[in-house]
């Protein structure tokens, strides 16, 4: 047996992160693509149009590719470096070409349609049918029917879009990294909380200021969320807030990292791609695989929510101006005065709560909740898996019978020099049954959970804001759907084959538990004294839950409507720029006009470098589902332990277990017993008009 020396060619099991280096990428992908090309050729000329004869061998090919490329993509997000980028960009075109070649294979497409039209179809279960139907739809949307010049142009566009997406993402990372505000005097740090001063001094030390201390400086503020957000909330210096705010909204908007030309090019290429496929616009292509059936359906839901939110958001802003005694409130003043108003209204600051939310305590509460409502036990498995950074933790998940059913990595802390912003869940390994040496083996799922929260500083653990707690619960919700799946076919296990606008359901559902009494008191313990969060804080958190909620709702609707408009009606060759479109939509979706130099679109990675093109509305679409799902628990009474366990089991057996094996609406109705309703979302947001 030959020994595999390149760790990216192992093709199975946990990634050997300790052994992987950027120089492994090019040779491994070149070799892998050569081998897979041969396998695809053999399969095309020699398959049976059956599940066993086509789907199983094709899965094997796709899984080998997913394993190697998945690791490289993961490292691009969490351990970015110039060497890694160069290697990634070198192999990406060949990878896109191979993906096109696979998805445009007429032989395989015809094989799938033959299965659908055969007698075997009736013997397949719902998961198998959905996988085959999805493969047919995917092939059609990937241009399987195209010939000659059209096919060539389509493939050229796919290559360009992959390249532009990577460049867009890198530009955002680089422009975020490029800004530093160095503070040296007590006046400049007036109002900043101790947690931010510690972080800013730590950043200064990393920048070469080795004597920097939280007490005496220097302090460096960055555009990374754990630095940027509290600075805008607490700095008493309006001039410095303005400087940081303007830098943030203009990220990747000009100069060396300018994303403007990339945006126009991306929108133009997507429009062309849609037309080649016979669609009127790219939004129609995107919606062809989602729950929402049309742009009109999406806009109808968003408009329902907008009408309810807009006047309330205007009132919120007016009250804020009156509180601040400033008629001409500037955008960089909003966070500061909102924080002051929240303190005055509810008599506490977000910072006061940090000591009660150390990461380990929060995890204890989160895992306690998972055991309580889903019957799973989560324990540390550090040391059992190689990791890409020393701060990464590894956990195992066991069921009621103490049988291990899944694992996950948690990369919790912000690392602006190498890790992209935001938070996400990705799959490392998906649950699947394989035949090995004549025996059926089940591969257990492994998830990556990535956050960008405040790191441990000056000997203190990671002390989280309540917002960071909600983010962790959110990503864990995605992780649960990946890890608690009962489906054994890789094409429909976990989040695979789940319509994009339903995939946020479990994640947003989990956020609701952060303020549930048992969960909150189970995790909110002072990191030094062990004292449980005083009850009055719980009452204040509850009372402040919907503070500025209409403004928050409107913000998400603004992003969603801009996204759907750019991908449906916008003409990239017309006289309007994407920013003009954004400004026009802002008239009905913002209560404070964006500044002329606001280049928010230039850092809108979700739609220009992620999977959310014409899909950002999914957050709101799924939030309707998740709020309604949580209301099932509220209806039986959150204090009624037996009933909670029963509803939790039903949620686990449907939403979390069935993955992409059935349509999300069918699964939702199986859990809820009816169609989804928007009322719970409006009620939870404090916007339900009687």
Which features does this protein show?
single chain, 690 residues, Glutathione S-transferase Yfyf (Class Pi), Chain A, domain 2, 5-stranded mixed sheet, 26 helices
In short:
The chain is α+β, with helices and mostly antiparallel strands and 690 residues long. 55% of the residues lie in helices and 7% in strands.
Describe this structure in words.
It is a single chain. By secondary structure, the protein is of the alpha+beta class. Among the domains are: 7-145, Endopeptidase. Chain P, domain 1 (Glutathione S-transferase Yfyf (Class Pi), Chain A, domain 2, Up-down Bundle); 179-250, no CATH class. The protein is 55% helix and 7% strand. It has 26 helices and 9 strands. It has helices at 25-45, 51-78, 82-103, 106-116, 126-141, 148-178, 194-206, 225-234, 238-249, 260-276, 282-287, 295-324, 331-346, 350-353, 359-374, 466-483, 505-511, 517-523, 535-544, 549-566, 578-589, 605-608, 618-636, 641-656, 664-672, 679-684, and strands at residues 181-183, 219-221, 377-380, 393-398, 404-413, 424-429, 432-436, 439-443, 446-453. It has a 5-stranded mixed beta sheet with strand order 3-4-5-9-6, with helices on both faces. Strand 7 and strand 8 form a beta hairpin. The protein is globular.
